[in-house]
């Protein structure tokens, strides 16, 4: 059975990367919840997608130039607050696995420390579009499973070379790039395939037929019936 990963919690039904979104992913029965992490000016890990806060909150400014207490003053339109990684773990631990996407430099060490402190390394996988961040966290903690996100044919054709320099556990392509040949080749190297942005049932079914292991979706109810 293909695993269903709720993107940014369950972003199609609740404000992305907020505690209600993760509670929704748990209630629906997702196999994992995906989330994005960044570090604040004072070295705290928060769960937030953008480098700048204005698309999603009532504030303006770069996350990297704001302290956690400044971040906590911001509100989503729906009144939600930007959560810390610890707050998301408190909601999700032993209820749903997490797929943590490293967005910025400085996150590997801080995220690894939080994962170890909470004793959840077997409930977590790590992704990033930045191969060097995956390399860094894997060096810090070889037990963590890491997957490289990518959205171009160029990276897709290079990935077989890349996996010699970075110990990747899985590949994480944009869904539109995936072919059965790619999935078969990944499996022949014992790498699993997570395809992201799967927001249509037909696309999910097609990827399932190709043998894709995990799909990321904003709308997990398309794939998990009550
Ligand atoms: O899981 C993949 C997906 O989250 C990557 O893109 O921009 O939504 O973080 P983005
Ligand atoms: Ca993400």
List keywords for this structure.
226 residues, alpha/beta, TIM Barrel, 8 helices, binds SN-glycerol-3-phosphate, binds calcium ion
What does this structure look like?
With 226 residues, the protein is of the alpha/beta class. It has one domain: Alpha-Beta Barrel (TIM Barrel), CATH 3.20.20.190. 34% of the residues lie in helices and 19% in strands. It contains 8 helices and 9 strands. It has helices at 19-28, 68-71, 85-92, 107-118, 131-140, 153-165, 180-188, 201-210; strands spanning 3-6, 32-39, 45-47, 97-102, 124-128, 145-150, 170-173, 192-195, 214-217. Strands 1-2-4-5-6-7-8-9 form an 8-stranded parallel barrel, surrounded by 6 helices. α1 (19-28) runs parallel beside α3 (85-92) and α4 (107-118) crosses α5. The mean pLDDT is 97. Bound molecules: SN-glycerol-3-phosphate and calcium ion (CA). Residues 7, 34, 36, 49, 101, 149, 196, 216 line the site of SN-glycerol-3-phosphate (G3P).
Radius of gyration: 17 Å
Strands, count: 9
The CATH topology is given as: TIM Barrel
Name the CATH superfamily classification. Answer: Phosphatidylinositol (PI) phosphodiesterase
**Shape verdict:** globular
Helix content: 25-40%
Could you give the topology of this structure?
Layout: E1 3-6, H1 19-28, E2 32-39, E3 45-47, H2 68-71, H3 85-92, E4 97-102, H4 107-118, E5 124-128, H5 131-140, E6 145-150, H6 153-165, E7 170-173, H7 180-188, E8 192-195, H8 201-210, E9 214-217
Parallel strand pairs: 1-2, 1-9, 2-4, 4-5, 5-6, 6-7, 7-8, 8-9
Antiparallel strand pairs: 2-3
Bound molecules: SN-glycerol-3-phosphate and calcium ion (CA).
SN-glycerol-3-phosphate binds next to strand 2.
